[in-house]
Amino acid sequence: MKNIKVGVIGMGRIGKIHFDNLKNQIEHVEVLAVSDPFFEKNIGVPNITAEDLIHHKDIEAVIICSPTDTHADYISLCAKAGKHIFCEKPHDLSIDRVLETLKEVKDAEVNLMLGFNRRFDPNFQKIRSLVQEGEIGDVHLLKITSRDPAPPSLEYLKSSGGMFLDMTIHDFDMARFIMGKEVEEVYAVAGAFTSESVQEANDIDTAIITLKYEDGTMAVIDNSRKAIYGYDQRLEIFGSKGMAKVDNNKPDTHVLYNEHGAHGALPLNFFMERYTMSYKVEMQKFIQALIEDQPLPISGVDGLKAMMIALAAQKSVALNRPVTIKEISEEKVKNIS
Amino acid sequence: MKNIKVGVIGMGRIGKIHFDNLKNQIEHVEVLAVSDPFFEKNIGVPNITAEDLIHHKDIEAVIICSPTDTHADYISLCAKAGKHIFCEKPHDLSIDRVLETLKEVKDAEVNLMLGFNRRFDPNFQKIRSLVQEGEIGDVHLLKITSRDPAPPSLEYLKSSGGMFLDMTIHDFDMARFIMGKEVEEVYAVAGAFTSESVQEANDIDTAIITLKYEDGTMAVIDNSRKAIYGYDQRLEIFGSKGMAKVDNNKPDTHVLYNEHGAHGALPLNFFMERYTMSYKVEMQKFIQALIEDQPLPISGVDGLKAMMIALAAQKSVALNRPVTIKEISEEKVKNIS
Amino acid sequence: MKNIKVGVIGMGRIGKIHFDNLKNQIEHVEVLAVSDPFFEKNIGVPNITAEDLIHHKDIEAVIICSPTDTHADYISLCAKAGKHIFCEKPHDLSIDRVLETLKEVKDAEVNLMLGFNRRFDPNFQKIRSLVQEGEIGDVHLLKITSRDPAPPSLEYLKSSGGMFLDMTIHDFDMARFIMGKEVEEVYAVAGAFTSESVQEANDIDTAIITLKYEDGTMAVIDNSRKAIYGYDQRLEIFGSKGMAKVDNNKPDTHVLYNEHGAHGALPLNFFMERYTMSYKVEMQKFIQALIEDQPLPISGVDGLKAMMIALAAQKSVALNRPVTIKEISEEKVKNIS
Amino acid sequence: MKNIKVGVIGMGRIGKIHFDNLKNQIEHVEVLAVSDPFFEKNIGVPNITAEDLIHHKDIEAVIICSPTDTHADYISLCAKAGKHIFCEKPHDLSIDRVLETLKEVKDAEVNLMLGFNRRFDPNFQKIRSLVQEGEIGDVHLLKITSRDPAPPSLEYLKSSGGMFLDMTIHDFDMARFIMGKEVEEVYAVAGAFTSESVQEANDIDTAIITLKYEDGTMAVIDNSRKAIYGYDQRLEIFGSKGMAKVDNNKPDTHVLYNEHGAHGALPLNFFMERYTMSYKVEMQKFIQALIEDQPLPISGVDGLKAMMIALAAQKSVALNRPVTIKEISEEKVKNIS
Question: Of D93, D110, D127, at which residue does a domain stop?
Answer without folding.
Answer: D110
